Amino acid sequence: MTGFEPAFAVLQPGEGIGSAETYLPADPSKVLWGRLPRGGDRPVAELEPGQSVVVDTISHEGILEDQGSDPIGWFGRHGVDRDHILTDTADLAAARRREPGAGPHVVTGPIAVRGARPGDLLAVRIDELTMRAPYGIVSTRHQRGVLAGRHGFDGDYGQFCSVTGRAGQWYGEMPIRPGQPHTARFPLDPFFGLIGVATATGERVSSIPPGAHGGNIDIRRLTAGATLFLPVQVPDALFYLGDPHFAQGNGEVALTALEAPLRARLTVDLIPAATVRAGLGRSVGPFAVAQGFVVPTGLDPDLNRALENCVGNAIEMLVALFDADPQQAYLYLSAATDFTVSQAVDQVRGVHGEIRIADFAHRSGSDFARRVLGDRVALGDRRTNSPEGGPAAVERDSNESDGGR
User: Fold this and answer.
1) Residue 380: what pLDDT?
2) By C-alpha distance, which of 225, 342, 246 is closest to 290?
């Protein structure tokens, strides 16, 4: 690609960080590559419940082996000047190599949350997301897309996409046919594909499959303003984030989303195990409150079983949050709730539901429901920034929860 014109300057490590903010860069000493934290790992930062943190993340695209492990060379061939390449991306590629058998994702963390214990829920509120570079990559490889094995769609290939701004909205733009001027333009709505807590395992597990720990759940509702609730597996939770996306279609069918680096401002809090047990009849795995929805998840290597798990978890959430009868909840879900394939390409398939909070005039009086839904449902803006302000990727009113605060 030639003639690339950046829509904004890259956001380098440390730029724009206030002196009072807790900041975690994505330098080589602060990240894992392709593996997730486990219990007993040393944290790279520590937080108290209720505290906020600014975290930088980088994308694995442009630094993988099939791309030459050289982001300066790889992005340079697509017209990106050296000063528009993130230094932390270049530093990681120069300092580290991904171990054989590991996943592709670069994970910033782990971050200890003091006092977290197994049985608690960690509430991670995504306060703000900022795009760190004006470009990203979509790719398929390793025969892991939905059409793996079908002639013409196998192989390792991808597409560099530029970011453009228009009428207060950010877009990704890519050629729709090689060698031709025709392009497709699609709106950006950044989120993290991978947010989780450490596993209670002897070895660090691959970053690819999601699970009870969260991890690579790829739910595109987790934009700024959302709160993700994760069942704590080990003392101090040891949470982390990575796999930053600028946009993704539900299903993520080729293998990746539009992969590109993000900075996040997050607030973490805890819902104690006793409150969780009093509110929920059983564990429901990771779930979220986002954009006016309660978002249950279902995970399983079999997509049909993942859907079944998600419906069961959704019923449990309706009982816990709105005092619903289970059979009536089942009927309500059939009439009013979408169940969507989050991703079908990460070994363990993911399905998520979208339950509208506004549908329910009554809420449970439990402390669990209050902590999940908040004392009120407020109208709020969701905003994703470029480093220099620029047009907001999203700015709209939505029913948002107060999360775990």
Assistant:
1) 39
2) 225
Domains 23-273 and 274-400 share a fold: no
Among candidate residues 144, 173, 167, 170, the one with its CA nearest the CA of residue 157 = 144
Total-model pTM? 0.91
Angle at 51 between CA 386 and CA 314, to 5 degrees: 80
**CA distances (Å), 18 to each of 14, 15, 23, 269, in order?**
9, 9, 9, 22
List, for residues 30-40, the tens digit of each pLDDT value.
999 999 999 99
Band of pLDDT at residue 145, cut at 50, 70 and 90? confident
Q: Does domain 274-400 have CATH number 3.10.28.20?
A: yes
Taking residues 286-309, what's their average pLDDT? Answer: 97
CB-based contacts of 176, cutoff 8 Å, min separation 6: 182, 183, 184
Give the contacts of 48 (CB within 8 A, at least 6 positions apart): 113, 114, 115
Among 177-186, 218-227, 288-297, which stretch is predicted with the lowest mean pLDDT?
A: 177-186
Per the structure block, which two tokens stand in for 182? 């025709």
Chosen CATH of 23-273 out of 3.65.10.10, 1.50.10.10, 1.20.140.10, 2.60.120.580: 2.60.120.580
Domain range annotation of the chain = 23-273, 274-400
Percent of the chain with pLDDT over 90: 78
